[in-house]
Design brief:
This protein folds into 2 domains: 95 residues, GMP Synthetase, Chain A, domain 3, CATH 3.30.300.130; 251 residues, P-loop containing nucleotide triphosphate hydrolases (Rossmann fold, 3-Layer(aba) Sandwich). Helices cover 40% and strands 20% of the residues. It is built from 13 helices and 15 strands. The N and C termini lie far apart (73 Å).
Length: 374
């Protein structure tokens, strides 16, 4: 019997937990047929797989339905670490390819700002990047996905609360021309603690992507929580067009932790746009620069990941005071403000808006040029 015919039948057997067929997942190790008797080797993720009986039963039913197959023997083994890693890579890729529809158009560039741990300036970078992109003339949204540790409203200087429109969709707050959504705009006060478990975090992100009336955006900046948890995994599944920038400080310890979030992104098939080094050095009034948090970590991380170092932001007191007052430092001519404006330029260079790349966009510019010439 043609082995391809047997494999085609086995593609009808799905792993109930991963939602993909056992052939694509690499679980089928061998298929042999002799005189109508088929022996199938199936590698399960773990020896005590709770779905073992269901998978074995489905294999037998699918093969016995073929003409010429009289008996089926299923031999199960357990995967080694390498096989499990390959299986999860396939499962994550399929999940991204079958992403559920959100209210974020495919033409919106999504920049996910991530860090391995807290305290490296990820949120201040997200806010200033969003403002910098807006000041360049782009339509920008800012999603505060740091559900527990929301700080975006304070950094933007708003206490506006989110509301719902007639269509029951959430209406983003508009601050400095930026559409903003944050749990900080839902709670009663800034001091209110959100005591939500992990599943609620990913559900909150899902609601922000599916039930918010986002306008037509060129860029959506997402301030992720630190680490590699539920929100990050949900984002990679729901927004296939998302690309990550990794924020780190120069010290080696922060760099190594940041490498983990980059590893998570790649295993989830999320491209890494580049690295941002924050708190790169402090220059005193006398002009001497002190590497208070070490030096070289951002470039070392970028080199290790094979991506560019998009920006190096100096340690500047204006970042703190601006964040506390709701006055983003990117709109000042301080050292950090200039570096952050340069960062926004680099982001646009590395990830240009879709309209600017399209044929219709180019035609529109040609028409404008011809009209102006007339």
């Amino acid at each position: 019997m043609d082995q391809e015919r047997l494999l085609t039948a086995l593609r009808g057997v799905l792993d109930p937990e991963l939602g993909a067929d056992i052939v694509d997942l690499g679980m089928v190790q061998s298929v042999h047929e002799h005189d109508g008797h088929v022996t199938v080797g199936v590698a399960l993720t773990v020896a005590a797989c709770p779905m073992r009986d269901q998978i074995e039963g489905d294999v037998r039913r699918k093969l016995l339905a073929l003409d010429g197959v009289e008996a089926v023997q299923v031999e199960t083994t357990s995967m080694d670490a390498q096989q499990r890693a390959e299986l999860m890579a396939v499962a994550r890729k399929r999940a991204r390819e079958n992403a559920e529809e959100t209210r974020i158009p495919a033409t919106t560039r999504v920049v996910a700002v991530a860090s391995g741990k807290g305290g490296v300036g990820k949120s201040s970078t997200s806010v200033n990047l969003a403002v910098g992109l807006r000041d360049l003339g782009f339509r920008v949204g800012l999603l505060d996905a740091d559900i527990w540790g929301f700080s975006v409203p304070r950094m933007l200087g708003t206490d506006e609360h989110l509301s719902a429109g007639d269509d029951k969709l959430i209406i983003p707050a508009v601050v400095n021309g930026i559409e903003v959504v944050s749990t900080g705009l839902i709670v009663e006060t800034e001091d209110t603690a959100l005591m939500w478990r992990g599943l609620m975090l990913s559900k909150a992100l899902e609601q922000f992507l599916k039930q918010v009336s986002w306008g037509p955006l060129d860029y959506l900046v997402i301030d992720l929580p630190p680490g590699t948890g539920d929100v990050q995994m949900a984002l990679s599944r729901m927004l296939p067009q998302a690309e990550m920038v990794v924020v780190t400080t120069p010290q080696a310890a922060a760099q190594k932790v940041a490498a983990r979030v980059a590893d998570m992104a790649r295993r989830s098939f999320m491209p890494i746009l580049g690295v941002i080094e924050n708190m790169a050095g402090f220059t005193c009034d006398h002009g001497t620069t002190y590497a208070l948090f070490g030096e070289g970590g951002g470039q070392a991380l970028a080199d290790g990941l094979g991506v560019p170092l998009l920006g190096s932001i100096p340690l500047d007191a204006a970042v703190v005071s601006g964040g506390d007052r709701g006055a983003p430092v990117v709109r000042t001519d301080t050292p950090a403000g200039l570096a952050l404006r340069s960062l926004a330029d680099r982001i646009v260079e590395a990830l240009p808006p879709v309209d600017g790349e399209s044929c219709t966009g180019r035609i529109a510019r040609l028409v404008d040029d011809l009209t102006a010439a007339d």
